[in-house]
Hints:
Structural class: alpha+beta
Radius of gyration: 18 Å
Strand content: 25-35%
Distance between the termini: 45 Å
Amino acid sequence: xxxxxxxxxxxxxxxxxxxxxxxxxxxxxxxxxxxxxxxxxxxxxxxxxxxxxxxxxxxxxxxxxxxxxxxxxxxxxxxxxxxxxxxxxxxxxxxxxxxxxxxxxxxxxxxxxxxxxxxxxxxxxxxxxxxxxxxxxxxxxxxxxxxxxxxxxxxxxxxxxxxxxxxxxxxxxxxxxxxxxxxxxxxxxxxxxxxxxxxxxxxxx
Length: 205
């Protein structure tokens, strides 16, 4: 763990990998809920970092953080969000070929995994989901699409994501979900928030 000051009231905590970042994020939320974390305005996880912004005394927390015993993330910490998916994406065959398997087996592999939202970004409601075993990481497309339809289930590197709205994108598209991921009238507006557990259920193509 490496703790870096960011301005006068923030800290950036660098971790060894995504699992450590997710575990620290969960521990920070737990301590805040228990009232044992100093007041903080925002806790923002990323791939291997966690940002704490709006601290009254960041130096004091910076001294304490390396001494914390942070338990591994518990798989049963939250209910699972289920997202129905039609595995009908235009890149499904390419992903199956990358995995050296059939399209049906690629669907089974992807739907069998349980995912966790590591962090959010790119567009409102877009979550970067981890959970696929390392050997199933796939490259981005050599040429990004100028427009990806909303609801597209996509893969890139170790991540799975669902596009909440139409946008350019270079991820491999393997399916379609009708679930609304971002709704400003909902509280919270984002269905997927950091730490959430997610499963994809197979709909008929």
